[in-house]
Amino acid sequence: MTASAQELPKTELVIGSYNVHKAVGTDRRRDPHRTLTVIRELQADLLALQEVDRRFGDRRGILDLDALYEMTGLRPVPLSNRKTELAHGWHGNLILFRDATLEEARVIDLPGLEPRGAIIADLRFGDQPIRVIAAHLGLLRASRLQQTRRLAEEISPTRPTLMMGDLNEWRKGPGCSLMPIKAGLDAVTRASSVASFPAKRPMLPLDRIIGCTRAEVVDLAPHISDLARLASDHLPIRARLRIAE
Predict the structure, then answer these.
(1) Per-residue model confidence as pLDDT tens digits over 194-227
(2) Where residue 2 falls among pLDDT bands split at 50, 70, 90?
(3) Is 227 exposed, middle or buried (0-12, 13-18, 19+ CB in 10 A)?
């Protein structure tokens, strides 16, 4: 997929998801500028990030958001109820967008043994409304089942909806903890997955982009570059969004 976002019709968007691992790479060095460079490589119109804040202490964000805008044109969805004033997002989640209008954004805590959350943002790209649900699900399957049941309640019945993030699930079929979400998908918006973890030799599809309610995700693939293999323990994933009539 070589076309840039600017070359695509307005009915299509380049979308992606990336667990940046607090800007700590596979070489165990923290290098936020390296993370920004990988994000620029994606050329995305809409991007969900995970682990963008430090987990402990003041939970400050690890990215220079002004530099990110200069490099990519991407803006963060503003959140008034962040965990701390120094954090970027909510429980490490962040949504970035370009050339769109934000209509509403809110955050929810997710059930389970670990502290997890999600951002729900209603955006409008030109005349096209889109709902984005960005999340980082738990490590325990029982917790993920509770979390996906909660997130399924946020899927709009009328507005094209994207579920994006590190969903920490590699299974398919009946054992998959994402079944509460997948159960509502039709033939147009059926889910697919690609291996994104670990970055140096991806084998597990932990990172997902799921299209719901006429949101068709096509050309889903990991973004592979020398820098992407180094900048985080996850590879970013990238796709195109089409809105089915």
Answers:
(1) 999 999 999 999 999 999 999 999 999 999 999 9
(2) very low
(3) middle
Residues 6+ apart with CB under 8 A from 18: 38, 39, 42, 47, 48, 49, 50, 207, 232, 234, 236, 237
User: Is the model's pTM score more than 0.85?
Assistant: yes
- Residue whose C-alpha is closest to residue 97's, from 117, 120, 123: 123
Of 203, 146, 205, which Cα lies nearest the Cα of 179?
Answer: 146
Taken in order of first residue, the domains within the chain and their CATH numbers are 12-243 (3.60.10.10)
pLDDT in tens, 17-44: 999 999 999 999 999 999 999 999 999 9
CB atoms within 10 A of CB 31: 16
Nearest to 133 by CA among 15, 4, 13, 1: 15
Q: Which residues contact 190 (CB under 8 A, 6 or more apart)?
A: none
- Cβ neighbours, 10 Å, residue 112: 18
| CB contact at 8 A, 227 and 192 | no
